[in-house]
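Friendly challenge for the regulars: who can give me the structure tokens for this chain first? No prize, just bragging rights.
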Amino acid sequence: MQYRSPTWSAVLAWRIEVAPGAAKELRRLAPAEARRITLFLSSRLASMKDPRSIGQALKGTRPAPLWRYRVGDYRIICHIEDEVMLILALRVGHRKEVYRGL
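First reply, four minutes later:
Bragging rights claimed.
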């Protein structure tokens, strides 16, 4: 029997990009929260076959639906491009404020 390390298949399936506005919002957060969110994006979300399986589509966003991901009291609003396997983080913020202006 061959032993495989639990991280042997850590090849990222999806490319994660953070929009400039989301990067600014991320820098404003406490370091521990920012680290938790970036860890979620890079390790959990990027390695999934279907990132929609753990997120929820936002209602009323047209033409393409935006997706939200929950990390504690914070939300990440993303746009998913299947053709190029890209997840673009558009907004990052507290659940009370992140939906304003969408």
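The chain has one domain: 15-94. Residues 66 and 79 are 5 Å apart (CA to CA). Your move, everyone else.
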